[in-house]
Amino acid sequence: MADVTRWVKVAVAMQSALGANKTISAVTLANPGVVSSTSHGISDGAYVVYTVTSGMQQLNGRVLRIDNPATSTWEIEGVNTSSGYDAFVSGYANEVTFGTSFSTLMEISPTGGEQQFITYRILHDDVENQIPSVKAATVYTFRSLWDPADAALVAAETASDQAAKRAIRLTFSNGKIYVFNGYIGFNFAPAGTAGELVECTLTITAQGRGKAYAS
Description:
By secondary structure, the protein is mostly beta strands.
């Protein structure tokens, strides 16, 4: 039987800092992919965000956990880079510190992520054809209590004002984890109806794919 996950006691954390750039010299096409980065100093279980400047765009912008680090390598936990990934050419990684915790969020609603298609018709055909192209952007919308004194909401407003990306980590009460990276959209505009809670809305437009971990 599946381990049922509920929206109860879910910890939502946002990136508060990024470590120094760790230059990546290579990423293997393997399961899991192995990153080469000289004397990187990153510990097992840490999360890093990848910036790929050439090649392997499937890794660009993603927040992923590292596994089995050695002095100058680490594994990309749970990521099979041998399956449809381009060859890596250049880029870097930054360790993520999840030091900002939300305590006012009430609901999350993801939209988008659907497969998009290119539609075409050859002259002698009498039906259209479709082939996959890209996936639509995923946007996460959070309902939140309105509290201008809340440190996490203030940090989200700052990120929004700076048009900056932030990594987000959801940790569920059964230990399952979901991480993603995206642009914050937020201001402190209050909303609601008479006699009800005053709320505000925060959106995060994902950059790259999110990643789920069983623990």
